[in-house]
Amino acid sequence: MEQTFIMVKPDGVRLCLVGEVVGRFERRGFTLSGLKALRIDRALAERHYAEHVGKPFFESLVSFITSGPVVAMVWEGRDAIAVGRAMLGVTDAGQAAPGTIRGDFSLSKEQNIVHGSDGPESAVREIKLFFGEDGLV
Ligand code: IDP
Ligand code: MG
């Protein structure tokens, strides 16, 4: 069984969408194997979004992702990574299909409610970063 890292971002928490996101993954048939609320600091943001350090939107992304609590989760099940990404919708929520989380709850390219691992290496890295003994939190 595959595991993926899913996180409700600060906008999703502020909009009271934690239950909505959890419910969608539960109803799809995934198993919740880790969950915690935390506040991301700059150091953790730079590790989590390492691939984006230096990009034009990076400083804005750090202010956003550190602006309030997030809810970090590990969901487990068949094709959890790809199915999870499909359930999120594309990055730019304004382009995301209705029926996806981003497509139902946001119009923003940055404040797009949720994060989901984009592949097996990211999933392992992100789960370790947020939940592993080696993690910062
Ligand atoms: P993903 O979250 O769909 O994997 P990434 O390209 O990995 O998308 O970008 C990480 C996060 O950075 C996005 O979810 C979004 O919050 C933010 N982001 C990505 N591209 C832009 C942009 O062009 N402007 C503003 N924020 C962006
Ligand atoms: Mg990504």
Question: Quick recap of the structure?
Answer:
This protein has 137 residues and is of the alpha+beta class.
Architecture overview:
This protein has 137 residues and is α+β, with helices and mostly antiparallel strands. The chain has one domain: Alpha-Beta Plaits, CATH 3.30.70. Helix content is 42%, strand content 19%. Strands 2-3-1-4 form a 4-stranded antiparallel sheet, sandwiched between helices. The two termini are 25 Å apart. The protein binds inosine-5'-diphosphate and magnesium ion (MG). The site of inosine-5'-diphosphate has 9 residues, from loops.
Which descriptors apply to this entry?
137 residues; alpha+beta; Alpha-Beta Plaits; binds inosine-5'-diphosphate; binds magnesium ion
**Helix share bin:** 40-55%
Tell me the strand order in the biggest sheet.
2-3-1-4
What's the level 1 CATH class?
Alpha Beta
Please outline the major beta sheet.
Answer: 4 strands, antiparallel
Order of helices and strands: EHHEHHEHHEH
Q: Could you say which small molecules are bound to this protein?
A: inosine-5'-diphosphate, magnesium ion
Shape: globular
Mean pLDDT: 96
Q: Which parts are unreliable, with pLDDT below 50 for 5 consecutive residues or more?
A: none
The structural class is alpha+beta
Quote the beta fraction: 15-25%
Number of contiguous helices: 7
The CATH architecture? 2-Layer Sandwich
Instruction: Give the tally of structural domains.
Output: 1
CATH fold topology:
Alpha-Beta Plaits
